[in-house]
């Protein structure tokens, strides 16, 4: 399980635009680096990041090797209702990780 | 020594550029008097001051600092029972934020049993082997970096304690000798860059003063967390000098000298550096 | 690169974009693994894949990258797009391309009116001093862009330490 750090405001007003910050531990091996004997280290990256808010997709990003290691991605969403925001990262070699954060909207 | 390559050091493009620049720098510096002039206390600046605004912003915000990923792992490890004794760090030390304040700020510290200073990693391993009856953690391993980052985080903002006393003095002097010693293929000392030429540029990169205020830190070059010893090995390799195995006493002597050199400066762990 | 039409706009970018449209897929150059560098043509090919025949307009998008990058391994990039983000008028996606990394795509972020604000931050790798282009795909099918030239003093993607 990779370590992830999610930042979602725990409380927001209905209709407020909030910023969500995500950070996950992953080497994002680009596949373009030669090792010490000159052989290319095989690609191992996160390819997709999806955020859903009470089941509805609010952000989806296709990632490429140009994303830095330990990817940081932040984006915005409208606080519509209380509930759960779920984050899912998937990638090469069957990598898959899900994190959730709760939000209270008044 | 000519033509001899430092073992296990794949030379990056930047190393070769740095080497050429170092040779040029050495030629310029070679005939100037190296006074061993140390930076006046009031003029000391952390590597933070030499970074771009964006890299500083990465360090300043705990929600975006990649080093925090290791701190969080360390927090989890702190409570995990380990070894034959089945004890966790928390079982002896309690709550880290309450009880570990100031600890990282006073390491390396003199250890009576070993009759010499030891650094925080070695202290962690003493606890592992003697108290938890567990295998020591490998230097630079994920768990070791996580624990030392977590412990270091508890000292963030606190001034680095002055390690000088009668027992540590000979080791600080040994570290100081190493800092001023010309070594390697380019016959360069640490002081020539970090005392005499800080603020200048080497291959387009600013030369910092070399204060170890934020270790372990997330280095953009490594794309990972690393200890002070890892950085020292990078330096020695860049100087085309012989580096030591991780955990060597020579490093700890240099570490305690660097802490003395940075005494009073605030701890920044987990720092971010380019 | 030249093209037959006498276009009033002769900026290098518009000439290249027009040339890309005329030449179609022929400009797509595959970067070989380990070769270490794609080309501006590969970037145009990647953009054409996303945009099809639609013209690329400059504006509405703000791409923020530090002009001098001290380490290409991790560069903070902010992209923001002017848009009311209503159900009738919103940003569908933000695509970022580069011209000198081993391959031209960086990230494609799909959003919608629920975003409230069309902006995102990501940390990216830049292998060399180069041009980076951010393209916003709008709900009405139009494409808008901003580009920046950056200087990278230490490269990413190339060798293991």
Account of the protein in words:
- The complex is a heterotrimer of chains A (106), B (274) and C (161).
- The mean pLDDT of chain A is 96.
- In chain A, strands 2-8-7-4-5 form a five-stranded mixed beta sheet, with no helix packed on it.
- The relative contact order of chain A is 0.32.
- Chain A has no helices and eight strands.
- The termini of chain A are far apart.
- Chain A has a single domain (4-105), classed as Immunoglobulins (Immunoglobulin-like, Sandwich).
- Chain A has 106 residues and is mostly beta strands.
- Helix content of chain A is 0%, strand content 53%.
- Chain B folds into two domains: 43-59 and 161-273, Cytochrome Bc1 Complex, Chain D, domain 2, CATH 1.10.760.10; 67-153, Cytochrome c-like domain (Cytochrome Bc1 Complex, Chain D, domain 2), CATH 1.10.760.
- Chain B is 41% helix and 7% strand.
- Chain B has eleven helices and seven strands.
- In chain B, the strands form three sheets. A three-stranded mixed beta sheet of chain B has the order 6-5-7.
- In chain B, helix 3 packs across helix 7 (142-153) and helix 8 packs across helix 11.
- Chain B is globular.
- The relative contact order of chain C is 0.21.
- In chain C, strand 5 (91-98) and strand 6 form a beta hairpin.
- Helices cover 15% and strands 35% of the residues of chain C.
- In chain C, helix 1 (12-23) packs across helix 2 (40-51).
- Chain C has 161 residues and is α+β, with helices and mostly antiparallel strands.
- Chain C has one domain (12-152): Immunoglobulin-like.
- The chains are: A mainly beta (106), B mainly alpha (274), C alpha+beta (161).
- Chains in contact: A-B, A-C, B-C.
